[in-house]
Amino acid sequence: MMTPDQRDPIDFPSGITILPAQDDALEKLLEELLEKCPAQFILLSEASGQILSIKGERGSADIVALSSLVAGDLAASQEIARLTGQYESFQSVLREGPQSNTFISEAGPHMILFVRVSKTVPLGWARLLIQETSRQAMEIVSTSPTDIQNLELGLDEEKLSQLIGDGLDSLWNG
User: Fold this and answer.
1) How many other C-beta atoms are found inside a 10 Å radius of the C-beta of residue 157?
2) What is the pTM of this model?
3) pLDDT single digits (tens) 40-94
4) What range defines the domain where residue 111 resides?
5) How far apart are CA 29 and CA 32, in angstroms?
6) How far is CA 75 from CA 11, 38, 48, 52, in A?
7) How many domains in the chain?
8) Is 141 domain-assigned?
9) CATH number of domain containing 71
10) Which is it for strands 111-118 and 100-106: parallel, antiparallel or unpaired?
């Protein structure tokens, strides 16, 4: 059995390379999102639609096709935002459905996070966790494997309380 340090890096068409320590950190972060949101399904892909990770119940969906469509959807949404002067990093696309809601979120310039949550999960809570996960995923792939342990990763209660407080403050302070 290979140890994490013996695994080969994974190179993707968008230009990113995921090293074993980065892959392990991404997997741990996505497991936390699956549990704490709670999410029904999570797909992390790189910008061209190549699958990086899958978590949760995928059902009968063709995951390769889904990943490609998610990448195209986000690219179109980004271009609409640019044309209308509304583009910012880490934006999300929300689709409300009859039993679940889906979020497509930028995770930096090279990754996309697709998350499906039950209609019972408050939208603000899901959005907060998905945006934080997207931000941390970008940090992971932007950090050398030897420095990953120095990052403040995860969705622990203290960090989530701070994010909620910051969100409430922004409502009152404009």
Assistant:
1) 8
2) 0.83
3) 999 999 999 999 999 999 888 899 999 999 999 999 998 999 999 988 877 899 9
4) 9-173
5) 5
6) 21, 26, 10, 18
7) 1
8) yes
9) 3.30.450.30
10) antiparallel
